[in-house]
């Protein structure tokens, strides 16, 4: 399939053009679209894939990435390269270091599949949302992580996914995408419209976990607002962002924050009061046509669409992290590298 198909079927070409233009037409074009195809690749070591989440420690060290064989790796710069930083107790117990070359679907339920990563700056602790193990934490020197939360409100976590931290209180906010389906069955969460996802808080002082909202449709990434009054949660199937208030008069309530032109994964603050939302796929994406699609969108503090990032169709990022120097790091569950986009 390619451009010649368009020539033979002009109607289809018109339809395609309309569909491709729809999402951007609905956006007040404020900032220039970023082209992610001009990016630098930070390759993982041989055979390793799927750096889903990208994190930096309080000293700017990293990136740290969560990969498909169950480990969290740390990049120590050009000379040191990548090294193992953390893993679950099950990874160690099951001798998973022998299985790095097996496809992850064969190993992830016993070796773990870390997804969201976030450091608590003051303590240096890294919190890990592991799809199979639950919420875990590891100290600043890494090693075997401790499982903190495996169930909430009497129901086991089944698909732990996104995590963020209130850097002042140390409270940890995280999502369980479904209590029905595991990560390996993530397509089912979308196709069935499963609405058994939950948003939770873990208080490290009391070690208590609280379910803030249940019955949520595919909650995925989560980020606390710059003023710490609310959480922004990506709802993958519905292509929306939800706002959940944790402080103020609307505390304990939620509302839709933004409609998205694609299926969101992780949400990360952009350092300017807004967020970068990684998009796995456009909402109306066709399997043929131009080899470019939306890979991320920048959303403002009030839910307004500020900027798009486009890239090749084989790039389907799971996280976009903007650093103080303006570089944007893209994580992915499929690729064998982290992309660094320098807009
Ligand atoms: C925590 O550290 C990260 C990574 O260096 C930094 O971007 C962020 O601004 C820090 N947050 C706070 C609240 O100090
Ligand atoms: C929110 O819920 C908490 C805990 O259930 C409660 O203490 C607090 O008063 C509630 N806040 C509001 C504004 O309803």
Automatic annotation (TrEMBL):
Residues 1-28 form the signal peptide. Residues 161-248 form the Strictosidine synthase conserved region domain. Its main location: other. One of its GO terms (cellular component) is endomembrane system. It comes from the Eukaryota. It holds the Pfam family SSL_N. GO terms for molecular function: hydrolase activity. Keywords: Glycoprotein, Signal, Vacuole. It is found in: Vacuole. This is Protein STRICTOSIDINE SYNTHASE-LIKE 10. It comes from Dichanthelium oligosanthes.
